[in-house]
Amino acid sequence: MAESDRQHSGAIASVLDAMQARLDALPPHRESQREFLGTYRRTTAAVGAAIDRGQFDDPRWVVEWDVVFAQLYFDALDADLSGTGAVPRPWRLAFGAPAGLPPLGHVLLGINAHINYDLPQALLGVISDDEFGDPATLAARRRDHERIDACLLYTSPSPRDRTRSRMPSSA
Q1: What is the largest CA-CA distance in the chain?
Q2: What is the Cα–Cα distance from 13 to 146, expressed in whole angstroms?
Q3: What is the reported pTM?
Q4: Nearest CA to 70 among 31, 153, 14?
Q5: What is the CA radius of gyration of the chain?
Q6: Lower Cβ count inside 10 Å, N or C end of the chain?
């Protein structure tokens, strides 16, 4: 493995470790937040594996994006858990959802907040003005983004699967 590959793996591993530490530290009354964070961790692990398999046009950029994107979520979660700092409204809604909501509901609220609120900020943080003006670079970013979407698709249970797992069997 090349030194730059180890650095990429190290950055993703650090994000995964930070996610696991937060999962382990979630207080019992925040159990419902475990649903999104667990799904997000599995997706991040899948992105890391895809990087290791060479599936991205620009793996360095994907790692940078992944780290920036995760940090936006960590900032919101940490502010919410500590009660200090501003929690963006999309995250307040997700974090404040009733604990009795089905687990998939918590996953979807987290995905909504992260994709609709954090994603644009993360992309602006990792795509320079010059890159926005370069059609070839934007095309590569789009392809890598679509590959990340595929990682999400393969690591998140479908609503139908989640519903089946909660329904009593018919005899």
Answers
A1: 62
A2: 22
A3: 0.85
A4: 14
A5: 17
A6: C
C-alpha span between 37 and 156 (Å, rounded): 12
Which amino acid, 105? G
How high is the pLDDT of residue 140?
95
Q: What contacts 109, CB < 8 A, 6 or more positions away?
A: 36, 93, 94, 97, 101
> 3-state DSSP helix/strand/coil percent for the chain, to nearest 5?
80, 0, 20
For the stretch 52-107, pLDDT in tens is: 999 999 999 999 999 999 999 999 999 999 998 899 999 999 999 998 899 999 99
The DSSP-derived string for 19-64 is HHHHHHH--GGGTTHHHHHHHHHHHHHHHHHHHHTT-SS-HHHHHH
Cα 18 from Cα 41, distance rounded (Å)? 9
Please state the φ and ψ torsions of residue 10, each to the nearest 5 degrees.
-65, -40
Angstrom CA distances, 23 to 41, 62, 68, 115, stand at 9, 24, 19, 20
**pLDDT exceeds 70 at position 31:** yes
